[in-house]
Amino acid sequence: MIFNIELEQHLLAGIIKYPKKYFDISSFISEDDFYSEDSYVNKTLFLVIKQIIESGEQVDDLVLSQRVKSLGISFEDNIDIFEYIKSLRLRRISDSSIISIAEDLKKVTARRLISKSCLDVVKKMKSSPLDKS
């Protein structure tokens, strides 16, 4: 499946560092743009960050990690969520690049959806009987 963990992490880092920028991308970015076959950590982080920002709270690393932990989700890669959030915050990213990162991530999502649709068509074609008329 098509995905880009680096773009996801970059966007999360940008939103964590510059939470007001979330509103510039909230109309076109959703949890469905965060995809990995191995882990739901980025999707979960996005949902929790979104909830914090939309409720008017400050995005704090400790609060964020506690909210994720309180969901009771264990991630397949057994990461320490607090350390993961700290590593995201250390990424070099400017507030002016957040929109372009979000747009690039949306392009990855579009490619993934097109690919999935094509695979679904192939599967249906293989499973349908041939017309013998």
The biggest sheet amounts to: none
Cα-based radius of gyration, to the nearest Å: 18 Å
The amount of helix comes to 55-70%
Rounded to the nearest angstrom, the distance between the terminal CA atoms is 37 Å
- The number of E-state strands comes to 0
Strand content: under 5%
Taking all residues together, what is the mean pLDDT? 92
Shape: globular
Going by helix content, strand content and strand pairing, the class is mainly alpha
Spans of at least 5 consecutive residues with low confidence: none
Give a short synopsis of this structure.
The protein contains six helices and no strands. By secondary structure, it is an all-alpha fold.
